[in-house]
Design a protein that fits this description.
- The protein is built from two helices and no strands.
- By secondary structure, the protein is mainly alpha-helical.
- The chain has one domain.
- The longest helix has 30 residues.
- The radius of gyration is 15 Å and the shape is rod-shaped.
- The termini are close together.
Length: 66
């Protein structure tokens, strides 16, 4: 049961991180300000981390119930 909680929590945190960061990336790109591009890249990297968290969390949940 503990792994199930870890997997679901990781997936949820990853999903929220991905959504928030991609919203920021698209907003920064739409503005087109050069000073915002570095922030957009950082947010995009965090979005990738969030997406990986979703994948890992989704893989942990089925493994919790053999």
């Amino acid at each position: 049961m503990g792994w199930y909680v870890v997997g679901v929590s990781l997936a949820l945190v990853g999903e929220f991180l991905f959504i928030a960061c991609m919203e920021r990336v698209l907003g920064n790109i739409a503005r087109g300000e050069p000073s915002q591009m570095r922030r957009a890249l950082a947010a995009q990297l965090l979005a990738v981390v969030g997406f990986v968290c979703v994948i890992v969390g989704s893989a942990v949940v089925p493994a919790a119930f053999p």
